[in-house]
Amino acid sequence: MRRLFPVPSARPAPSAGESPAAPGSRHPRDSPGSPAAPNAADPLDSLDGLADAYAYPDRAGGPWLRANMVASLDGAAWHDGKSQGLSSAADLRVFGTLRALADVVVVGAETVRQEGYRPAKAREAFAERRAAAGQSPAPVIAVVSASLDLDFSLPLFTAPLIPTLILTGATAPPERVAAATKAGAHVVTAGDGAGADPVRAVRELAELGLTRLLHEGGPRLLAQFTAAGVVDELCLTIAPLLTAGDAPRIMNGPGVTVPERFSPTSILEEDGFLFTRYTRG
Question: pTM to 2 decimals?
Answer without folding.
Answer: 0.87
